[in-house]
Amino acid sequence: MRNYDVILIMITLALSVLLCLLAGYAEKVLSPKWRICYVLPLVVVLAFAGLYEAEACMTGVYVGSVLLLAGFLWEKKKIRRIAAMLAMVFTLSTIPVCSLSPGYRAPDYLEDFEEGFAMLREFYVLEEHKGIDWQQLYEKYEPRFREVQKEHDAVGNYMAWYAFCSEFHDGHVYYAGNQAEVVNRAEERMYGNDYGLALMTLENGQTVAVNVEPGSAPALAGIHNGTVITAWNGQDIENLKEQVTWNWDSFPDRENERFYSALPVAGFGGETVEIAYLEDDGEQKTVTVPKLGAYAKRMMDTLDILHRSPEVGHLNWIVQDEHVVCLKLKMMMYDADSYESGNHNQMQRELREKLIELKEGGTDRIVIDLRNNTGGSPNFDMAIAALFAPEGEHIFSYDGVWDPEKKSFLRESDGRYRVGGKLSYFGKNVWDGQVIVLVNASTVSAGDALVLMLSELDNVTIMGFTRSNSSCQAVCGVEFEHGSLSFSSVPNLTEEGLPIIDPDASRESTMPLDVRVPFDEEAVTVLFDRGEDYLLRLAVEYGQTGEMK
Amino acid sequence: MKRLIKAQVYQMCRKKSTAGVYLGILGMLLFELISEMRIFGGKLTADDFFLSFQSVIMSFSFIVAFWYAAEICVGDFSDRTVNYEVMGGYTRKKVYFSRVLLGLASGTLTVVSMWCILVGVAVAYGGWGNQVGLSQMVARWLLMLFPFWRILCEFIFFSFLVKNVYVVMAVGTVIALMSDGLSSMHCFSYALGFTNLYRLSHMLYFGVYTMSDNRSYYLYDATLTTGEVFGTIGASVGFGFLFLLLGYVYFHKDDLR
Lengths: 549, 257
Prior knowledge:
The structure holds two protein chains of two kinds. Chain A is α+β, with helices and mostly antiparallel strands. Helices cover 42% and strands 18% of the residues of chain A.
């Protein structure tokens, strides 16, 4: 039970007892003021109900406080005592009702879904681009939320929202729960059981074990990082990939989806799972291993390893050698003032001075690490890009034209958005040496935007296992009682009025990737055995030779 | 009962404080309105202003309504006018309900007239705007009259309990100013008049913006659901009636000292 409900029950009970005793005293010491006391419980109940919302399970308390009004209306001791005793009984009856009822303080999940769906339908800017079928989506998910509402299942609600948002394949459509415990339990349910290892698919199509738990049953059976797994629980792994319903992210593009597709498979299974694998000498073996717990933690840990990047602060420079320096950008933001105003002159001045200093010191290659960059301000992007771009105007994208009357962005007759003002920046040509930009699937939003801006420069190479996330429309959020929904609400357009960066219904990303680093045995060894930053090492080597060793 | 009401109206009209309080609070709100709209170089529209400052306007207009209700309902206890009315042959029911009706009417007239003046000036100065429809907002404001009446009924009941016009005015002022503070508690409930008002004055919204000219637009969902309408009216009428009845029961047996 909630603390405030407990407090209200205690107060109402105490007042009922006091008013029962007061009835006898009021008969002896006559005063019209005693009547006011019998209104107090109702005032207290109203105050609590107003501050913390009324609750059907607390009806006993509400009825009790109303019954005590009898003492206000009639001044007879007997009536007052009976009313007080009845109030006590009703108040006490609330305790088992609240404690045992699953509907106690149950939120209205269905209402949140209806509101969120209506907002999306009206304001989501990529519905045609991504081929969203609203009717089909509603018919698929409304029953699910109705069931969640009926069961008062907070975890089920989060999982339903997660699945619903995944349908959009847009990195900017997501539901954020506001209770960490609910999110954790949902992840445990979604990702299944931990058997002491995770799975990844190599460039050559083989699925291998990664992040193997030392001393676990798979490890004792000879499975290590890089061991080829041929079957999981008696089934072909490619078939199991088809059965994955939960992924750690709703990938806009198929390339990223394929890259991570084996990861959730390692959570499939019951109390035990049979793993078929190839020993180092090529011999086919199987081992049955028990579950260790929930797979969510190992999966997230595996992702952390895959996405490993220098553990330094935002906008930090890390010297790699006498010729190469790495600039870490964790987000597209300098400080709160510049974020609000869009003016990044100070940041740009500081970076400019640093670049000149590096050039004079003999540095001729810069690695810009945009891995796990969560985005932020496009103005920040343009301020950075300007330092590397040749002089002259560089147009990044165009705004849509907002119609305040219709409360939507205007479209042309062929359905494309009408193009409004342009977003452009003027190059300062501060750095003309080689630039290598590191990306991964978690490079998103304004991170995507900077990748696109820099990719247009001749001296820039984009490198990673996969392309960046490919989600770059501007976002808004709607708050609900138990979470918030974010979605793309403002289009960033090409000159032709089409959304930039975000892939269409074909889910083929157009984001640049000049060097696709193969995820092979060496990558597994360096990342999972040695714990090193594989991509950064390759970026430094590439800068030296123009190719990867 | 008509004579009792007329006497009260005559008394209120003759008091300088009646006009002084009204004009003072209205002047303050108008000053706030014009200064806010000017700060933005005339770009702030009326809907911008009301969506941002609704709770402040409510608080201060309620102060005036509470003061009038206090003066009408219990202002005559100190000089025993109420006793003389009862002794003069008027029933307690007539004495009570004449004051209650006039208190409700004066409060409503005060609040409605203030809002009409503010809306008129805001629209004349900067136009209504496009974030939310004027007709939708007016519908909400009309619905907000119900919890306002309920609050006034509860206040009138409290006035008859305390019977001291200055104490009642002070408490009314504090409660009216606290109503703005309730917005920080994020309560949506029909249980209290203020939380009901908060529920009606806050709408689901989100922002869109354009990068090239750095403009932001806010979109509000001002539609009222059937549940909100019936819930508001039901709770307001129910609790308003309850507290007026309690007030009458108390007054009926009170020794008027």
